[in-house]
Amino acid sequence: MASVSEPITFREFCPLYYLLNAIPTKVQKGFRSIVVYLTALDTNGDYIAVGSSIGMLYLYCRHFNQMKKYNFEGKTEPITVVKLLSCFDDLVAAGTASGRVAVFQLVSSLPGRNKQLRRFDVTGIHKNSITALAWSPNGMKLFSGDDKGKIVYSSLDLDQGVCNSHLVLEEPSSIVQLDYSQKVLLVSTLQRSLLFYTEEKSVKQIGTQPRKSTGKFGACFIPGLCKQSDLTLYASRPGLRLWKADIHGTVQATFILKDVFAGGVKPFELYPRLESSNRGSCSLPEKHLGLVSCFFQEGWVLSWNEYSIYLLDTINQATIAGLEGSGDIVSVSCTENEIFFLKGDRNIIRISSRPEGLPSIEGGSRNTCHSSLESTPCYEFPGDSPQSLNTDLLSMTSSLGSIVDRSSTESPDQDSNLSGEVNGVLQENLDPEAFSVLEVPALAPDVLNEGNGDRPGILPCNRAGEIGPHSGVWTSLLELREAMEGSDVTELREESCPTDDGPSSGQSPCQEQDSSAEAREVGDMEPDDSQSTFSEAPFLNSPPVPSSLSWASHAEQRLLATSADEGSAEEPSKEQGFLMHMGGPGHLGSTPWHAVTDSDTGLKEVIAPECDLGTVGGRLTPPVSALAVCTREPRHEQPSRDQVLTSSDEEDIYAHGLPSSSSETSVTELGGSRSLQDLSQPGTDDTGLLKSDQFAESWMGYSGPGYGILSLAVSEKYIWCLDYKGGLFCSALPGAGLRWQKFEDAVQQVAVSPSGALLWKIEQKSNRAFACGKVTIKGKRHWYEALPQAVFVALSDDTAWIIRTNGDLYLQTGLSVDRPCARAVKVDCPYPLSQVTARNSVVWALTEQRALLYREGVSSFCPEGEQWKCDIVSEKQALEPVCITLGDQQTLWALDIRGNLWFRTGIVSKKPQGDDDHWWQVSITDYVVFDQCSLFQTIIHATHSVATAAQVPVEKVADKLRMAFWSQQLQCQPSLLGVNNSGVWISSGKNEFHVAKGNLIGTYWNNVVPRGTASATKWAFVLASTAPTKEGSSLWLCQSSKDLCSVSAQNAQSRPSTVQLPPDVEMRAYAACQDALWALDSLGQVFIRTLSKSCPTGMHWTRLDLSQLGAIKLTSLACGNQHIWACDSRGGVYFRVGTQPLNPSLMLPAWIMIEPPVQPAGVTLVSVHSSPNDQMLWALDSRWNVHVRAGITEEMPVGTDWEHVPGLQACQLALSTRTVWARCPNGDLARRYGVTDKNPAGDYWKKIPGNVTCFTVTSSDELWAVGPPGYLLQRLTRTFSHSHGAPSSHATTPHPEDLEDEWEVI
């Protein structure tokens, strides 16, 4: 603690850009864009928790610089209050506007701590907005108060995983503040403050005098180690008064602070912003105290309300500092020596006596500014795996090499010498011929300050040539040297960025510059190909003369840090797939380092990727070191598995210039550090591993060529991408990688015929449709005007369907390469359309109301068809498509507003509605993420630098751009889907897309109603077992714990047979095998029913003698073929040979105790699950972790040890003879891939479409489930295969997942 004598100033050292930029300004719900407001805040030394208006809780880990997101399921509603607690486990509680409270138990890397995120819900008691939360120090009690005066006590048992809540107190007015200590709850309401003794359940008011006026006046306990009777507290009162009271509510002292405030309050020093923090000259409200908290040292009190924050010293009766009259303070929180407050919609400010990250706060030098380059972890490049770090990059000019080598080999204690050397080397080598141009890229879009208008406009990289070649270098180097010599980096102001000097920063780096000479590829393009323009976002082309070396300003460096550290600190959970934690388009590794040789001077430019400059703990690390690591020989250590590996799609990302797009597909699953190319190139050891069928259900990710993806179109040989700025790019297919070339500018929509012979575009401002005379990638192109006033066009190989701006539909027929457009004929349509798709004499359309129509009677003789028909199937399934496309092999594909992908088969001109009476859903959730920031958000990303240059909020620029795109009331939706013979291509609108080149499995959950039961019957449980008749499976169904029936899985529509249960028992669990049905009742008794061919549902129940087990109570059973497994209430596991009531051998004791897995205290196994062939045993524990028994063989049926299976939490498992399926706590289903005898735990989980409350699997991998309303569902599947020319299998197969050894791209 600081002594009073030394003067302490509390101020804001630096805005929290790293935090605010990790939270999106808008999110996409379907195609609606929702603004995200920040609504609640709490902090401690480890975390910053921020609640938002969309029900998302953002949790920033201060040690690892990592942002995590947690959400409430169901309706999105604002979070009104959050409360962190650091005890044995880290906990965070959040309350919402409708009265929901959730507690998240966070994952900790420390041994013995929680390893899987868990959520507890407090529901049903509060009906109104939560206003206050308070924890007990041990995390076992949570108190929540709402604005109707209800206070709820929730007791958490983290070991058992249960949370029990009940109402303990009801006051007549809203709860303002809660505090808990030593079994006493301190409650402040709008009318009074009181003490609630939780053991005695008694209440005492603080003070005897009532308040003169109601208001948000708070109270808090004074911290200190003392017994309950010695507790003291502060309570604020109207009229600038503060009470100090004891545990009996007796007031010991009243501080009357009017005179103290009369002398004025010294304001906190805030970091300078563009707009002043006091908005205009609004009259200041009367001064009042508000909520209170003890802060920093004894006798100091922090008090706040929505207008002001005051820091008071009660001992010396003085104000230390404050903030007055701002009027929109939403939330305030303090740690030991920091005050954080949330102001307005989106501004979080940190006030402290020292900069963030100094050792006294963080404990140790974790976040201090390292001066040694060698010790900073900036080799965690998300570029390519180390084997692919090609020596091409080493061929930069020797001058840069020498800087790099010297700087990277210096030892830590020679830092001052080092910076001198860097200066020296640069000074010697500023000769234009010798120095290679190094440019720092603009920020990755998702870390740019979106929507904070309060920040000076910084151009990420200065325009080359605008500042002399020396000045920028020296300014930057001075900053660099300061940083390296340990001066506090946060002192560097933005003004020191050489580009930030007035009018010269008006030019935005977003403007495209066509310099074809520079953008020429290094070895791969013909010399005459001058059309290829350098157009990778958002770099400026560097001129052949040396430009200044400009580092981004320090604030941006910090942002780079937070983004770049995302991937390296911990392994992403498998559910998140490889899209990492932040949903923005600037995913790690989406742009590798490109070396582009300049044709005039032979210099090689190194263009850094968007988030690669390494930083430590949010501090600036000189980019030179980043280069150093990249240019030295590849590092010898294998990267750890949890580093993010991204594979690129060319053999060598450095040798080819810009147009090779890197794939975002992380390949940790493919053997650690190999990239996909290493695997797919002939000559490597793994030749032949990647056969097409082994990519079944796998999606590869690619980054787009421009600014977001508005439209995706694929033909047989090419893929076309249209970005938000109207840039049209093209790349040849299939090939390992994509080579983007700029094809055209100012395009609003693009269409291509399946063969690729026809290409049309709609021009941006004029809305005129043009057809391309001869589609050549190189050479001159001629465009013919085809039709004015067009908003959407679809091409088949010989027709064009055009939607006009007034909603009319037109058709042009008889088109070919020589006749790319023709006369247009109007086709009547009953509804206004937003999209059309046509192929092989089939035409489908999407209306503005998202209904689907198909055209009947279309043929080569009658291309316009006869009439439109509504698609009943889509109506029945309530499908709401966003875009549709016809694919090869007679398929129709749709992407809906929830981001789900569907297909139908058998779509031919004679039967355009196809063969299926439902849509098949394909699982893409592990790969393609739509929710975070989709279409319009991407426009915002694309325009970030315009906004910073013009110093206006990004949204305003985006709105202007949006108006430019949609100048008329365009109905057209972006097309984000394309299907050709090389794969299914899909984009989420961000600057990335995914392709599935292997087989895809479509899922449909069919509602089955057994004969004689009502269609509204609500089933509670379903279990499959091998049928006694040796053919197929039996299903056991029940609606409650007191009934049971059986039906054949092969003929589930038949009448079920009722099974009488023993009298007066409530069954808790069932397990079944071919010759027996086992049942476990609520008292732990076991009943067995023998099944036979002649009597498949058995004759009678036999109670099993469990006297051998003594007082043990069984809670879970599993039947294999001849082996029974059980689990008891304490987590013990038992094994028994023989499924019948009598043990046939009578030699062994019937039950053998098996040691359960070693678990943290309080975590026990709760259920066991066996495969029908006795080969596998899996188990779940009380924290929903999954375990597998290893070493099970014929000779050793009990196995040898337990293994934890990571990747997801499950509350139910189902095992077939070779596969494991899991149901997550939220009802999602997943399948475990890679389970074999040698690898009993398998390799990875993958989700499948569906959400259920209970499920089971037959021995042949046919899934049955009970859906949320209680329906009995059967999973049907259809495989879509890309085998060229072969029709897709039309038989509905219950188990297509035979590709057990396939590779999976995670």
From TrEMBL:
Residues 485-549, 561-592, 629-648, 654-688, 1283-1306 are annotated as: Disordered. Pfam families: Beta-prop_HPS5, Hyd_WA, Tectonin. Residues 485-496 have a biased composition (Basic and acidic residues). Residues 502-516, 659-684 have a biased composition (Polar residues). InterPro entries: Beta-prop_HPS5-like, Beta-propeller_rpt_TECPR, RCC1/BLIP-II, WD40/YVTN_repeat-like_dom_sf, WD40_repeat_dom_sf, WD40_rpt. Residues 36-345 form the HPS5-like beta-propeller domain. Signal peptide: none annotated. This is Tectonin beta-propeller repeat containing 2. The lineage of its organism: Eukaryota, Metazoa, Chordata, Craniata, Vertebrata. The gene is TECPR2.
